[in-house]
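Can you please make up a whole protein chain along with its backbone structure tokens because I've never seen that pairing?
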Amino acid sequence: MILVTGGAGFIGSHLLDALICEGREVVCFDNFNNFYDPAIKRLNIAGHVGQPGFHLVEGDICDMGRLSEVFRKYNITRIVHLAARAGVRPSVEQPALYNQVNVEGTINLLELARTHQIEQFVFASSSSVYGASTKVPFSEADKIDCPVSPYAATKFAGELMCYTYHHLYGIPVTALRFFTAYGPRQRPEMAIHKFTRLIYEGKPIPLFGQGGTARDYTYIDDIVQGLLAAIDFSCEYEVFNLGESSTITLINLVRLIEQISAKPARIDFQPSQPGDVEITYADISKARRLLGYRPSTPIEDGLTYFISWFSEYEALRSAQKVS
């Protein structure tokens, strides 16, 4: 049985969809916190609740007692650890909280992996661990000891703890560095979702750093493809980038959303923010070679899929408000 922490979130719920479609039994562990509306997360998994092979446990990864109950009740053989406090800018304001959840929570799961002899531990890391590196594309072999935000530091620390537990106890670990995942169900504060909503509402889009920063946006189906491969990947300890290996600047991203949605954007240029980096760009050659990772969704297609979902989602929300 596979334990997916943060399973009701954006990436987690898509992974659950894929695992259940494959006929695999899963435990979704989520605390439904208020980082964004918990009702969105409940909607993400509503179709699975009560279905065979799906088990929902509400709890916090910082609560070792609650986590231990899961391992006593279910025969967990693999862990996909997606639960975390996300976001660079909020981490600058709440570093202690990010350390507690992202580092201490990860240690709790590693302890349980050790005591229950877990067959595979998949850790969700982030492209943010590369810091302000200007050497592109980012390779797993690059030095990453200069994180520029508490969030990035906690993800780096999580990787280090994963390696330590592998070294000491032989836990097989695959760490995946996600490069800006997007798609249907994306968190509302993330750039693509936020920009699209503001365009639809006719409100100004705040673009930090004059919109010149570039990101390697990765469509959710491609992220899930990499996750599925990692779950069954036989290894000792490995780190992989999961990205599209292609970049687009923020200003060009907005222009593309305008084009696809056929709606104009109002742009409010603002200074760069603490913790922001100029570029993220994934070298995915290692993931291609060892995981068989094959991202196949260019940004133009991914945005088209997202905007189609967003339009339907907004129409449903409006109908619910009227009723």
Q: What stands out?
A: The two ends are 40 Å apart (CA to CA). The first helix runs from residue 10 to 21.
